[in-house]
Structure formats: C-alpha cells, structure tokens
Amino acid sequence: MTQRLSTGPADSDRVLVLAHGAGAPMDSPWMDAMAALLGDRGIRVVRFEFAYMAARRDGTRRPAPRAEAVLDEYREVVRQLREETDATVFIGGKSFGGRVASLVADELHIAGGIRGLVCLGYPFHPIGKPEQLRTAHLTELATPTLVCQGERDIMGGRDEVAGYALSPAIRIAWAPDGDHDLKPRKTSGRTLEDNLAAAADAVAGHVGG
C-alpha cells in the first residue's frame, strides 16, 4: 500500500487527496503549510508520493516521469481511500501532481469515486515553452475544477491563460502577483501567507460547495 500522510480532522466528511509537485516531496514546507490551512478549514488532506519520489528517500535519485506514466498510481490511492471512507473525496495536487490528477479526474468522477478536482499551480506549459500547451484535455473536462494560480506563474500566468480554451467546469482563483508557488513580490504589498490563505479559502469553498 502506498504510504500516505493524513492531516486535518480525521472525522471530516470532506477529503482532499493531494499529490506533490515534480521536485518536492509530500511533506515539503509548501505542502505542509497548505495542508495545515485546509485542515483549519475542516478538510482532511491525504497526501502521498509517487514511486519515483518515494525512492528518493532511500537515496535513489529518479527524475520525474511523464505525467501519463503515473496515472495508475493515483488511481490506486483513490481506490484504497474509497474502501476506507464514506466521505466525499476530491483529488488534486501541486503542479505536476495536479496535472496527473486532472488526467484521471473525469473517469473517476463519472464512476462516482470523486466529487471534484483542485489544482494548485497548474503547469499549463513547460518553463520557457509556452507553445507546448498541456491543455488539450482541459477543453472538455467535465469534473468541477478549481485552479489556484499565481498571476505571474511562469508556467501559465493570467495574461496567457486568458487566451486558452478551457472547459466551463474550470474556475480559476488568481493569487495576486503570485508566482508558481503563489508567492508575490514584496513590492506587491502582499505576502505568501496572504496568498496561501486565500487559496485555502477558495479550496474550502470548492470542496464544501
């Protein structure tokens, strides 16, 4: 069974599965902070690591695979969770993890396994390659989806995303002046804590709606 990290109210009727980004583990400071904020809002957060990331804990350095290569790993975590709880399940993740979740969302939603999707900093394209869009499946996505995105995200900022053809099932909550980690510049007058809290509020509204 995949090792998982569960935080927030154990008896919550809302569970959000969160996968990590391409280069940081499930217990990175960013993931810890977001999980804590969501827990404060009554959401149980279940985190897990894809096999390549789990291997790094044993000193085996593996590069992040293609998102399509780890879809079954995400499906398996959801399957396990559905056997354990009657709570309403949402899926999502940070960057790479959110992209993977978005690729299995509709099949799981249609099957009744999940209620919705949450992407925290979606990588709409690789860094420096805005022409290589990762949006084909997002045009027809039927699963209710929330994307929390920094306005100046290097993998899809506000001006860029405005030109994308995205499904009406997708709602975007913009983090003012935020980068890919939702962090604003000091000159903006905002802090990372401000943007993370606002994102957590948006997720709580999406999950609780």
Separation of the first and last Cα atoms = 31 Å
Shape: globular
Helicity level: 25-40%
What number is the mean pLDDT? 96
Distinct helical segment count:
6
Q: Concise description?
A:
This protein is of the alpha/beta class. It has 6 helices and 7 strands, in the order ββαβααβαββαβα.
Your description of this structure?
The protein is α/β, with parallel strands linked by helices and 209 residues long. The chain has one domain (4-208): Rossmann fold (3-Layer(aba) Sandwich). It contains six helices and seven strands; from the N terminus they run E-E-H-E-H-H-E-H-E-E-H-E-H. It has helices at residues 29-40, 51-56, 71-84, 96-110, 158-161, 192-208; strands at 4-7, 14-19, 44-48, 88-94, 116-120, 145-150, 170-175. Helix 1 (29-40) packs across helix 6. The two termini are 31 Å apart.
Provide keyphrases for this structure.
209 residues, alpha/beta, Rossmann fold, seven-stranded mixed sheet, 6 helices, 7 strands, globular
Describe how the helices and strands are arranged.
Layout (H helix, E strand, L loop, with lengths): L3 E4 L6 E6 L9 H12 L3 E5 L2 H6 L14 H14 L3 E7 L1 H15 L5 E5 L24 E6 L7 H4 L8 E6 L16 H17 L1
Parallel strand pairs: 2-3, 2-4, 4-5, 5-6, 6-7
Antiparallel strand pairs: 1-3
Helix pairs in contact: 1-6
